[in-house]
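--- STAGE predict ---
source: upstream dedup step, 1 unique chain passed
mode: sequence only
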Amino acid sequence: MAQHKSAAKRARQAVRKNKVNSDRKSKVRTGEKSLASALKKKDAASIPQLLSYYTSQMMKAAQKGVFSKATASRKIARLSAQVQKALSAK
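--- STAGE serialize ---
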């Protein structure tokens, strides 16, 4: 338990930030799963929208420090390559 007023405040802030970061991670993972599902089903109509959503959520998370920028860039690049391959195969 916190012994000082400032330590108690940092503990409260940590709890709030943990919740926010968890929510951001959840949105990214949901977007990634949705995109993977659409790629598997070859749903060409929804793939570009899902890629856009995923990219947006991932970059927001990277800007806030939830993921490193290199990780975000790598994941976006790999999924974009899969999307291009899926759409060009049509």
